């Protein structure tokens, strides 16, 4: 765990990766998860930075809670660690420099099936929803970077998982294909 902070700039770099969100009473479940008219770039303050990440310093903030509906340990939404950071570290500027979710690299899936990554769209939509709430609660978040732009080799997992919003065909000259999440994120960014 490494944290970089500047007293003059008050910057804290965060990696909030691997969060698994379950439904929450505070989340508007009636809203279609891909509806960028509800949540989009214009929902955030002017000057807010979005992008995809390739590397960063890491601060893992995990708080395991019991999911009442399934009895499965899950992690809390992104709003809670952001509010904690605001309080604990004297209201710093925060950039979320890597945030994403992996999916099993299943060789049995067709290309079309592999590109249909609805869980990743759901993951980012929910994180951005709670990120927006944290900002409204006064947390000074200035950027959010999706992990990752492309499927890649992960040091711990090798090629057994995929993190990218773009599919990389490892068997056919590394050809790249945008996944559903890439299309969703593009639409999200267009609505400014």
Automatic annotation (TrEMBL):
One Pfam family hit: Glyco_hydro_1
GO biological process, one term: carbohydrate metabolic process
Residues annotated as signal peptide: 1-26
Highest taxon of the lineage: Eukaryota
Database matches in Gene3D superfamilies: Glycosidases
InterPro entries: GH, Glyco_hydro_1
GO MF annotation: an example: beta-glucosidase activity
Keywords: Glycosidase, Hydrolase, Signal
Protein family membership: Belongs to the glycosyl hydrolase 1 family.
Protein name: Uncharacterized protein
């Amino acid at each position: 765990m490494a944290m970089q902070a500047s007293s003059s700039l008050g910057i804290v770099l965060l990696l909030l990766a691997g969060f698994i969100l379950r439904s929450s009473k505070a989340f508007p479940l009636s809203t279609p998860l891909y509806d960028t008219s509800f949540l989009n770039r214009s929902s955030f303050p002017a000057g807010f930075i979005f992008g995809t990440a390739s590397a960063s310093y890491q601060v893992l903030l995990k708080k395991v809670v019991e999911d009442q509906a399934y009895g499965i340990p899950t992690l809390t939404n992104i709003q809670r660690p952001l509010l904690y950071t605001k309080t604990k570290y004297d209201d710093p500027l925060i950039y979320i420099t890597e945030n994403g979710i992996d999916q099993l690299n299943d060789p049995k899936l067709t290309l079309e099936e592999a590109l249909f990554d609805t869980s990743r769209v759901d993951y980012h939509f929910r994180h951005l929803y709670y990120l927006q709430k944290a900002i409204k609660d006064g947390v000074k978040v200035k950027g959010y970077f999706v992990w990752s732009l492309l499927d890649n080799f992960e040091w711990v997992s090798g090629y057994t998982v995929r993190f990218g919003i773009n599919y990389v065909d490892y068997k056919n000259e590394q050809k790249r294909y945008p996944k559903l999440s890439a299309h969703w994120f593009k639409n999200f960014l267009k609505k400014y």
